[in-house]
Design brief:
The complex is a heterodimer of chains A (308) and B (250). Chain A has 308 residues and is an alpha/beta fold. Chain A contains 10 helices and 16 strands. Chain A has an 8-stranded parallel β-barrel with strand order 3-4-7-8-9-10-15-16, surrounded by 7 helices. A 4-stranded antiparallel β-sheet of chain A has the order 5-6-14-11, with no helix packed on it. In chain A, strands 1-2 form a two-stranded antiparallel sheet. The longest helix of chain A has 16 residues. The radius of gyration of chain A is 18 Å and the shape is globular. In chain B, strands 4-3-7-1-2-6-5 form a 7-stranded antiparallel β-sheet. Chain B has a 7-stranded mixed β-sheet with strand order 11-10-9-8-12-13-16, with helices on both faces. The chains are: A alpha/beta (308), B alpha/beta (250). At the A-B interface, helix 1 and strand 5 of A face strand 4 and strand 7 of B.
Chain lengths: 308, 250
């Protein structure tokens, strides 16, 4: 038997798989369903202080390398989300599956106020989404591209929230390690690496137009995986807080790559397009099979081994 | 070119659906199960899901209810639009006696059930309802397929006066069916679920939802713990009733 248990910032998880934010996470019932179907921990969709409509359709498209999306952070606002999170927490607690609440803000003060509201639902973690590439035309450069800006927003939130704090980083930062050091020094307990890549663009040649209404969108799925693995590898070599390695993990061996790069836990998103709510079982089965065939008993037996 | 997200289809014929909208018949075909849907994109206008009304030739029935559907209803022969899909889980067509219950534009997702069933020589009874006679959709199609058609209008301008559920419950003969298929407004479907439970006939319903991805990723179209785009749009009567209960608790 292999042991898939993980300690993430002092919270024990039955397995390393994390439902990534923005996937199925706008409703308590769907979060609970995915917890029942094997997620080790689930992340709610990012919410902001005020409600947001997001971008008009088309917002999410499948292409040969995975997905491209510009949903545009549609959410009901932090007050309504607080009720959703309370409901989710109520259903998740008996299952022993922790909850990560993702929060987005356009400014330090908006982040701080949204976190204050969301914290009242007592999620096990709050994740700061400082790296969404799909709202740049609205809010300018994401905080995650700049170490000083990322550090400041982390400090602003830390001043009002003493729970476990994760910061979601961008693969588009010129130097992701500097950003990680900045947020770690301002009190982040862990990192989620990474958000979507790009932004990218797909033009429909018959329409002569970009297909996404936002024109550009973040790239995820298989095309993101090698970038995400490299980011996790660089981060693990430079910071000593845990990393949730996220980006294009579709099967067990993709999860193994993340762990070998140094990830403590592994985010799952695009895999739900392929496997629906069976995505977690699919990945866990592959991960277990790999460990048995290689003679590993625990994830620690090979975590970070790619650095040796 | 492998990263095309949509395929282009060309309108061959436009059939008027009274005051309600149109049926667009295309030069193209699609491999789809009855009850599956496609995402329809009109560049610079928007993208929304529509049931596949017919597969060969591809046909979509559009109720004119807002700016996007208004633009679709204004298309004429030779115009192009862009589709992706088909997506979702469709109807299981079981038994030999099929009861179809459609409210308004819900008729669109049941027409392909009727076609498949009639092609294999099955009996199909359709209860088709709308507010008034000019809002009835796809009467011609169910007639063409040789279904037995019973019409209900709220104002009595055609057929039975009352809702389609009233018509079904008060029908003068016993309706014998192996499977009930429903599509229409949710209160109608909730009442249909009660009818199916009472008469002990299995039920499948097709739900409508505001969708973003259509791929089972974003979660925008949740009902209870189900996603309409991926788990549905067709659900068994039991799953539908459970989803309604979960949503009421929220």
């Amino acid at each position: 038997m292999v042991d898939l248990g993980v300690d993430l910032c002092g919270v024990s998880l039955s397995n390393p798989l994390v439902l990534a934010s923005g996937i199925w996470g706008s409703c308590a019932h769907t979060l609970i369903r995915l917890a029942r179907r094997g997620a080790g921990v689930v992340t709610s969709k990012s919410c902001s202080l005020m409600p947001r409509m997001g971008h008009p359709n088309p917002t999410v498209l499948h292409w040969e390398g995975g997905l491209i999306n510009a949903v545009g952070l549609s959410n009901p606002g932090a007050k309504t989300q607080r009720a959703v999170l309370r409901k989710a927490k109520e259903g998740l607690t008996p299952l022993g599956v922790p909850l990560i609440a993702s929060v987005f803000g356009e400014s330090e003060s908006a982040f701080r106020r949204a976190v204050e509201l969301v914290a009242e639902a007592e999620p096990d973690f709050i994740e700061l989404n400082i790296s969404c590439p799909n709202v740049e035309s609205e809010f300018g450069e994401p905080f995650a591209l700049n170490p000083a800006a990322a550090g400041k927003v982390t400090a602003a939130v830390r001043s009002v929230y003493d729970g476990r704090l994760l910061v979601k980083l961008s693969p588009n930062a010129p130097n992701i390690v500097q950003v990680a050091r900045a947020v770690a020094s301002e009190g982040a307990d862990g990192l989620t690496a990474v958000n979507t890549l790009g932004p990218g663009m797909i033009i429909d040649v018959h329409a002569g137009r970009p297909v996404l209404s936002n024109r550009v969108g973040g790239i995820s799925g298989a095309a993101l995986r090698p970038v995400a693995v490299r980011c996790v590898y660089d981060l693990a070599a430079s910071v000593d807080i845990p990393i949730i390695g996220t980006g294009g993990v579709l099967d067990g061996e993709d999860a193994v790559q993340m762990i070998m790069a140094g990830a403590t836990a592994v985010g799952v998103g695009s895999a739900l397009e392929v496997h629906g709510d069976g995505a977690f079982q699919h990945i866990l089965k592959g991960l277990e099979g790999f460990m048995m065939s290689e003679g590993y008993e625990r994830l620690d037996d090979f975590r970070g081994c790619a650095h040796d | 070119m492998t990263d095309a997200t949509h395929r282009v289809v060309t309108v061959r014929k436009v059939v008027s659906e009274g005051e309600t909208g149109v049926t667009l018949i295309f030069d193209n075909s699609i491999v789809a199960d009855a009850g599956q849907f496609v995402m329809v994109w009109l560049p610079d206008v928007g993208e929304r899901p529509f049931s596949v009304m017919d597969d060969y030739p591809l046909s979509l029935t559009i109720a004119d209810v807002g700016p996007f559907t208004h633009a679709l209803c204004a298309l004429s022969c030779g115009d192009r639009l862009w589709i992706r899909g088909p997506y979702g889980k469709g109807f299981r067509i079981e038994g030999r006696r099929h009861l179809l219950v459609a409210g308004g534009s819900g008729a669109a997702s049941l027409a392909l059930v009727a076609k498949v069933a009639r092609r294999q020589g099955d009996r199909v009874i359709v209860f088709l309802g709308a507010g008034t006679e000019s809002h009835l959709m796809l009467r011609w199609r169910f007639g063409e397929l040789g279904c037995r058609l019973i019409v209900a209008t709220d104002d009595g301008s055609e057929g039975y006066q009352g809702s389609v559920l009233d018509a079904l419950q008060n029908w003068r003969e016993d309706i014998v069916a192996d499977m009930v298929y429903g599509c229409g407004p949710e209160p109608m479907l909730a009442a249909l679920a009660q009818y199916a439970q009472k008469t002990d006939v299995p039920l499948q319903v097709s739900l409508e939802a505001v969708m973003k991805c259509g791929l089972g990723v974003c979660g925008n179209c949740h009902r209870g713990d189900r996603l309409v785009c991926k788990d549905g749009p067709v659900f068994s009567g039991q799953v539908f009733s459970h989803a309604l209960q979960l949503d009421e608790m929220s």
